[in-house]
Specification:
This protein is about 45% helix and about 25% strand. The protein is of the alpha+beta class. Among the domains are: about 40 residues; about 100 residues, PH-domain like (Roll), CATH 2.30.29. The strands form 2 sheets. It has a 7-stranded antiparallel β-sheet with strand order 6-5-4-3-9-8-7. A hairpin with a 2-residue loop joins β8 and β9. The longest helix is centred in the last third of the chain and has 76 residues. The chain is elongated and about 120 Å long. The N terminus is likely disordered. InterPro entries: PH-like_dom_sf (IPR011993), PH_domain (IPR001849). This is PH domain-containing protein.
């Protein structure tokens, strides 16, 4: 199963297994497994039966399961929409491309399903909002607006139900992606903090070594001075001017 996953998915699966995955021998955690006392499915990696998860992974699975089970199949299959341009609207197929992490759309003949024209993309990470069309506009009950900063893309679904499904699905995709990026930022911040702590520790060790070296030199100079004074006193020698 793992061989079919992209490299990033393989890494995520390995991290999950090393973090907390164990067969669900008992629904009640023991003292030894208290840190993995949660059970849930992990649809993202094909675990359709509950498995034991640590607290952090359980929260992630709860957030992701609905997306991977309900919303992602809808987005990857795609659907026909009417896309508004500058002068006219045209039929396009809109779908999500998971391995490239963007939505793409292309003009299509709704009867023959023949594609024409260039493929255009909307990166998921660039989407700042997704919402229904303002009620004052035409066909507001089926219109979707995908905002990328100041730029907006309007797509009209074939039914109000499909409009609601797509708004919910894209919102869910943004939520899951946002949580993933936040986790990566937190992980990176912890790594940077660890690296900085190591640098601070090395700097402190170097400073202590320098302080010991300086102390040793000062102690050696002091002992030599004391030895000279002892020799002068022993032989009644005058101090050098």
């Amino acid at each position: 199963m793992a061989s079919a996953f992209p490299q990033k998915a393989k890494a995520g699966l390995c991290a999950l297994i090393s973090c907390c995955f164990q067969p669900s021998h008992s629904p009640e955690p023991t003292d030894e497994s208290i840190c993995s006392g949660n059970f849930d499915r992990v649809v993202k990696f094909g675990f359709v039966e509950p498995v034991r998860l640590c607290h952090n992974c359980a929260a992630t699975a709860k957030n992701e399961n609905g997306f991977y089970e309900k919303h992602l199949p809808l987005l990857e299959t795609g659907d026909l929409f009417s896309k508004y341009g500058l002068l006219r609207k045209r039929h396009v197929l809109l779908k999500f491309v998971r391995d490239k992490n963007f939505f793409q759309y292309q003009k299509v003949d709704p009867e023959s399903r023949a594609f024409e024209g260039e493929i255009k993309a909307i990166p998921l990470d660039n989407i700042t909002d997704v919402r229904g069309v303002d009620a004052s506009q035409d066909n507001a009950d089926v219109g979707i607006v995908i905002a990328v900063g100041d730029q907006t893309h309007r797509f009209d679904a074939t039914t109000a139900l499909k409009r609601e499904q797509w708004v919910e699905a894209i919102t869910s995709a943004r939520s899951v992606r946002g949580a993933l990026l936040a986790a990566e930022r937190e992980k990176r911040a912890k790594q940077v903090e660890k690296e900085n702590e190591e640098i601070r520790r090395m700097s402190e060790n170097l400073q202590k070594m320098e302080e010991r070296r300086t102390s040793f030199q000062e102690d050696r100079i002091r002992r030599r001075a004391e030895k000279r004074e002892q020799l002068r006193a022993k032989y009644n020698l005058a101090a050098a001017s």
